[in-house]
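Filed under: proteins

Residues; backbone shape codes:
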Amino acid sequence: MCLAVPGRVLGIEERDGTRMATVDFGGVVKEVCLEYLPDLKVGEYAIVHVGFALQRVDEESALRTLELFENLGLLQEEFGDPWEQAAQADAGPAGEVRR
């Protein structure tokens, strides 16, 4: 599943002519393109989908959504380690790897 997730901008820099941000998604930090929201500032929240900040959102809405996603296990699904997820999917009932 690929969600649009709210995140808080921690820092902004320009890389090769593209405005990029370091964004915190409830403890998971990722790099995000700001080309669709060129006036977004450090400390503000935005909805991010596939690495692009798409819409500014207020802090209360962002935190509420992050809490809901966390409770539903969607943040782990969205941002978890794909190698760990694949290993868990291959593990048998006692943690044994299926072949």
